[in-house]
Every structure is written in structure tokens, then in C-alpha cells.
Amino acid sequence: MNNEHIDRPAVLAEVNAAFYRYEQALISNDIDVLDELFWHDARTVRYGATESLYGIDEIRDFRQRRPANGLERLLENTQITTFGEDMAVASTEFHRPGSNRRGRQMQTWVKLPCGWRIVAAHVSLLDAP
Which segments does the entry list as coiled coil (predicted)? Predict the structure, then answer.
């Protein structure tokens, strides 16, 4: 793939909108939007800080059981890169107020007939040095 297919402005704008919509839903615990933005398929994977989830059903179950408090966080070093018209990778670091841990998050986004969806995600936490 040559560079003219990477980070096309219109595609990048779409993915940025989806990414920040997801982020707002995450910190406000809007389970409907969180569910909407994941691919509804058994092949969807989400590796969390303490869990490995395989398929949309496990991801939905996790979201229903997750505590809804303490979700505020600040993003840093967010990088979104698009490849062609229908694939993107989003990477960011985050920290929560009052915590000395730094989180890392990566998502693979694919544009499906229903819109941009996360098909794979990974979240991890590091103790501050």
C-alpha cells in the first residue's frame, strides 16, 4: 500500500469521530453505544486489563457487570492511522485522576456495512515508575 492510501483526511475524520464517540461512551458508561461500536461477531476479541473476552457475547456480559464508577480518564499520545477506506488502528495512553497507573489501549477498526466497528481491542495497565 502506498502512502496515498494512508490517513486520507475524510477517512481519518470518520475514524476519529468513531474513536471519540467510543471514548465518551466509555467514561459515561453508555453501554448501548459501547455495544454498537464493537463488531457483533463471535470473532471479536477484547483483551482487558484483567480479562480476555472472545466474541461479542462475552464483551457484552463484561460491560453489564463492570462497575460504573471511576471511569473518568485522560488520554495522551493518541495516534489513529487509517489504511485505505476501511481499516484503521487507534492507540492511546490514559491515566485516571488519583491513580499512579498508566493505561494503554489499542483498537483495530474496520468499516463494515453498518459503519466503523472495533474488531479487536487490547487494554493494559502499567505501574508508574
Answer: none
DSSP H or E run through 10: helix 9-28
Instruction: Give the tens place of pLDDT for each residue, 35-80.
Output: 999 999 999 999 998 999 999 999 999 999 988 888 899 999 999 9
The C-alpha cell at 76 is: 495522551
Instruction: Give the CA count within 13 Å in the CB-facing half-sphere of 66.
Output: 21
The DSSP secondary-structure symbol of 6 reads B
Q: Could you tell me the three cell numbers for 24?
A: 465518551
89 contacts 80 by C-beta, under 8 angstroms: yes
Q: Judge contact between 16 and 35, C-beta under 8 A.
A: no
∠ CA 117-73-68 to the nearest 5 degrees?
75
Would you list the DSSP string of 32-85?
HHHHHTB--STT-EEE-SS-EEESHHHHHHHHHHS-SSS---EEEEEEEEEETT
Q: What are the CA-CA distances from residue 37 to residues 52, 93, 97 (Å)? A: 18, 20, 26
